[in-house]
Amino acid sequence: MYFLAEYMMKGRMQAVLMATTFALLSLLFPPITVLSCCVVSLVTLRKGVSEGLMVLLLAATLGAVFSIFLVDNFLFVLGYGLLIWVPVWLISIVLYVTRNLARAIETTVLLGVVSVIGFYLLISDPALFWGETLTNLIAPMLSEDNKPEISSEQLTLSIQQLAHYMTGMVAAGYISGVLLSVILARWCQAMLSNSEGFKQEFLALKTHKRVANVLLVIVACGLFAETSTAEIAWNMIVPFFVLYTFVGMAVFHVLLTAKSNSRTMVSLFYGFMFMFSFITPLVFVPVAVTGFSDSWLNMREKILNQTNG
Length: 309
Hints:
Number of strands: 0
Helix content: over 70%
Oligomer: single chain
Distance between the termini: 38 Å
Strand content: under 5%
Largest sheet: none
Radius of gyration: 21 Å
Structural class: mainly alpha
């Protein structure tokens, strides 16, 4: 990764070429999107806001030109590039100005919450919209040739239940990609200038108590408000889940570092998180709860005091 980061920083065209190449490859393998966005973020963090914007626009234009020969739809690739790069560039500006990773993550989550509210303002019945969308996506699974293991009635019921929370889940998935790109760029920035800087910044990751208090109010709305308001509240809660997952990971990292076999424990923790994330997102629940609780408990400070004592 150091080689790639160093190559990105050699010049504007190198960064543009890498951002464009990774973006086009992500059409075939979506996880590569993180690498493409990382380029825009790293340029912004290292060379400033205007240079990051220039790389973004040039990469979008170059991608659109290439797409004429590859997929014969330059508007799709142009729009796709702007969709994945602009939010990352904006969050990178926040990090560039504040030099505070926690503030950048909080801003990203705020954008996710605002997007949930905006979706409910634009779409009269989001649950119906997502229900129809999911039904169309899984329609091939219901064909006689595939012979699904569960009945169509059970599948339809599951879709109807999931549809009520899809707005928040989509928002959370989108901001997770944005945050992973910015955090990866921050790590690359540290590798190029201060190898220990990112570790110190990540392990100190902490949010204000007022953010946790706002979340408590939203949870109360989800529990006690009328049905439509409760649905909006629960969809707003999902992006907060992303925020406190990152904080919880920092807490667990510090906790495991205090153990005698710290390196092995930390490696196992991240390996466990990575493997089981493909099976169920529930693996992140105890991590997010830990991150949320840390707003009041200050667990890392207590752990370090016990270790030093």
